[in-house]
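Risk mitigation, structural track. In case the binding assays with nicotinamide-adenine-dinucleotide fail to produce interpretable data, a predicted complex structure has been prepared as a fallback.
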Amino acid sequence: MTKKILVLPGDGIGPEITAEAVRVLNALDLKFEMEEALLGGGAVDAIGNPYPEATRKLAREADAILLGAVGGPQWDSLPREQRPERGLLGIRKDLNLFANLRPAILYPELANASTLKPEVVAGLDILIVRELTGDIYFGQPRGVREENGERVGFNTMVYSESEIRRIAHVSFQAAQKRNKKLCSVDKMNVLECTQLWRDVMIEVSKDYPDVELSHMLVDNAAMQLVKAPKQFDVMVTGNMFGDILSDEASMLTGSIGMLPSASLDQNNKGLYEPSHGSAPDIAGKGVANPLATILSAAMMLRYTFNLEEQALRVENAVKKVLAQGYRTGDIYERGTNKVGTREMGDAVLAAL
Ligand code: NAD
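Fallback model:
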């Protein structure tokens, strides 16, 4: 059966990097029907809405979605409801994509690209599972109000038991497929909401006796990630802590341009996107690293379409181009072959 992929190139480097991932998917000779739509700043400019109705309809019909990135300084002064990021939060919420999977793998060829000592990071392979549709990013009430003659800003951290339970199941199951170690990150010493998080994690752990569950406070987790990151296998945490820790983990690998991500619903329908943003500083220059987006397409093959062999084919092609010495600017070091976005795509296609 033909599967439908919705491609949302987005803003900044988004169109450049998604174009390469689309070429890779097309090269696999699978039955995919691909369609493009607007999301983010481009959608605001064209229609005045970061998540247009037409995109919403196509997103609901699609089996999987490939996204570049959204945002840029030209939209930063718009009212909050019209900012590109609202489009991204909107599609995640609309499709109920509550589980964000972000692997951080350090390819041996890039051990020197990390700012940490090679012996600390060599062989790193961790998976961060971030809850994506709850927490302080969506909690009500929120806003800025006048109180005693001054402005007061406020947001609400909130998690229901069922929200914690479903992300717990995803992360325990992910750990079962790996080294069977799950570290849950919270701030239970200060935040009641995350005490509930910890309690529910412990309850769900009874269903997974083969997985070793541990707990860590988020401040310690931030330290341990740079001190001894290889102690972790799978980490699970809430939306805000996960946002920060997954970016930190990305730097362990040397480049944010190498990190894919998947956001899944209950049925493994997924939105696949690189972990980085729209990189306005290099947009339109043809120098962005497309590998995170290409590896996101590989995750799509694995998680939504159950095509493990094809996923591995793409991942092995990426490994091969790194071994051959191809590097975009973000992962370049002397003695390697510096290439642009399109040439990197060409190299992956050749390796396939
Ligand atoms: P960013 O990830 O866009 O860029 C951070 C740095 O990493 C920049 O120096 C950039 O050039 C570099 N970089 C990022 N991706 C790269 C790639 N593929 N190849 C080479 N270098 C790369 O983060 P930022 O600068 O904080 O944010 C820029 C814009 O992106 C903002 O508008 C922000 O809101 C948005 N953003 C979007 C997403 C998303 O769409 N998922 C995520 C984060 C930030």
